[in-house]
Amino acid sequence: MKGNTVKLHDKEFRVSIPASVIDNSVSAMAERINADYEGKKPLFLIVLNGAFMFASDLIKKIDAECEITFVKLSSYSGTNSTHVVRELIGLDESLEDRDVIIVEDIIDTGITMENTIQKLKHLKARDVKIATLLFKPNAFQKDYTIDYIGMEIPNDFIVGYGLDYDGLGRNLPDIYKII
User: Which of 108, 156, 164, 166 is catalytic?
Assistant: First the structure.
């Protein structure tokens, strides 16, 4: 893993978004959330596995008193969405009358997030907002608001900064796109 390219399994990837750009985007998002949640106590719902790195960096920049919990959802196999959301690890906390901020690494088709929003509303969350580091507007198929978007990106398959290709690449500090 040297230079601007990496090979993961059978695919080659090139740096697309350097770590410094990611950090600036995370800082800008944290500033907006801090302003919006001043005096409130939001519950950050971190979607694993991909959002772990983004969530860690984001939460360290949040000034508001907050709680953090995790959920694990998946709708990918290899480089393609299966369009079937499988819940792997569920919520333990009561969400009734809570302000919830879902922290996601990337929203592309929007299928996984739509499923998550519906579940949180069923669990009587007072308010549900979405914070995603990356958004693929050309892949988005749903009709809901994404409240905090770090960056809009093309519909490329990417890895790094928590995102993987069949388990590899999550540890990369930059984001790479498939060549």
Answer: 108
